[in-house]
Automatic annotation (TrEMBL):
Pfam families: ABC2_membrane. Keywords: Antibiotic resistance, Cell inner membrane, Cell membrane, Membrane, Transmembrane, Transmembrane helix, Transport. Belongs to the ABC-2 integral membrane protein family. It is found in: Cell inner membrane; Cell membrane. This is Transport permease protein. Its main location: membrane.
Length: 310
């Protein structure tokens, strides 16, 4: 038996030649092993699709567990909210006189505001609500806010179907590629903005439980901070120009106005489409992505202390 000349050798006493043993890699040096927390941020959620699917299933299946109506509440609650705003704002205060087909205008915004409020609140509470799991094992903590927003989006889909059906009942609504693109852009903006807020306040809520209360107060004004129950024209006449411009690039406002353009404007005779709609949309996209980046950075900065603070 001969030794390969290319292998390192060492000479021992008596002239015997032996192959030098190669140093073994420690598990910590092996590329297959990664330290807990050494993730690729939100991209890591796609490395655990089974866990994400389980959390989504939990969020959707247990929401109405033990309820007689079950998923029917996904229709009843927004319907009650719609009728309340329609009667008070439309009938009592007379806003219907300024907006043609006010019920459809109102419904187009209400469904988005409901999704935005529910998803932001759920994502903020997602880390503290899974404290027992986080303290026992490691998994990408971003999975919890992502699954919370995903579950809220699943419950939003029936409301979107109702909005589409009502819009088609009102008049000559027709599908178009531009309408589909506007709906996708509106939902993408709102998803990015909501997830960014969820990551930011979800992380802060672990160390400072005031974050949950801040979000609750903030969401109380959500329906008033976007043109849901009034037209953007009404605000432009009573606030400074720069306030109106900031208001119009608010990601929630951009998403609501895109929904108005798709589900309401094609049916009415004189729709109130905002000036510089494309510019506002680009600004909303930038703010939504900036919020998502900020939320992810803060989340990664604070997640090392999650188990300790929980």
């Amino acid at each position: 038996m001969t030794l390969d000349d290319t292998q390192p050798v060492r000479v021992v006493q008596g002239g015997e030649r032996r192959a030098a043993s190669r140093p073994k890699l420690s598990p910590l040096d092996d590329a297959r092993y990664r330290a807990p927390g050494d993730s690729r941020w939100l991209l890591d959620t796609f490395r655990y699709p089974h866990l994400l699917a389980m959390l989504l299933k939990k969020g959707t299946s247990t929401r109405y567990y033990g309820s007689v109506m079950g998923w029917g509440w996904s229709y009843v609650k927004p319907a009650m909210q719609f009728f309340m705003y329609f009667f008070i704002m439309g009938v009592v205060l007379g806003l219907t006189r300024g907006l043609e087909l006010f019920p459809l205008y109102l419904l187009s915004g209400i469904v988005l505001i409901n999704f935005y409020s529910e998803a932001t609140r759920a994502a903020t509470n997602s880390i503290t609500g899974n404290a027992a799991l986080i303290k026992k094992i490691y998994l990408p903590r971003e999975l919890f806010p992502v699954s919370s927003v995903g579950s809220a989006f699943i419950h939003f889909l029936p409301q979107l179907v109702v909005l589409l059906a009502v819009s088609m009942m009102y008049g000559n609504f027709a599908f178009s590629w531009l309408a589909i693109v506007k709906v996708i852009v509106a939902l993408a903006i709102l998803l990015a903005f909501t997830l960014g807020l969820g990551l930011l306040f979800g992380a802060l809520n672990v160390a400072y439980r005031d974050a949950k209360n801040i979000i609750d107060v903030f969401l109380m004004f959500a329906v008033w901070m976007s043109p849901v129950i009034y037209s953007h024209e009404m605000l432009r006449n009573v606030v400074p120009a720069w306030v109106y411009q900031v208001y119009m690039v608010n990601p929630v406002t951009v998403a609501v106005e895109l929904f108005h353009e798709v589900f309401w404007a094609p049916i009415v005779s004189e729709p109130q489409i905002p000036d510089f709609a494309l510019t506002n949309t680009i600004g909303g996209v930038g703010i939504a992505l900036g919020t998502l980046l900020l939320g992810q950075v803060v989340f990664r900065k604070l997640e090392g202390d999650f188990a300790q603070n929980l």
